[in-house]
Amino acid sequence: MRIPRASIASSLVAIALVGMAPLLTTCGDDDDSERERRGGGGDDDDTSGGEGDGDDDDDDGGDDDDDDGGGGATSGGGATSGGGATSGGGGAGPFGEPELGGAPLPPRRQMSGSALSSYRQGMEAAARGDFAAARQAFQAALSADSEAFRAAYNLAVLADRAGEEDRAIQLYRQALRTQPDYELALAGIASIYRRRGRVDDAIAMVQPVARRFERNVAITALLADLYVEANNTDLAITTARAALRRDERFVPAMVALAKANLRLGRIELASSILSNAARIQRGNAEVAYLRGQIALREGNPANALRYFRAAVEARGDYTEARLALGVQLMQGGNYEQALEHFETAERLSPTVPEVYLGLGDAYRSLKQWAKAKTALERALRMDDRMAEAHFNLGLMYLAAEEMPGMDRVTALRRAIDSFNAYRSLMGSRITREDRSNALLLDANKQLERAVRRAEREKARKTREAPREGGGEGE
Question: pTM of this prediction?
Answer without folding.
Answer: 0.80
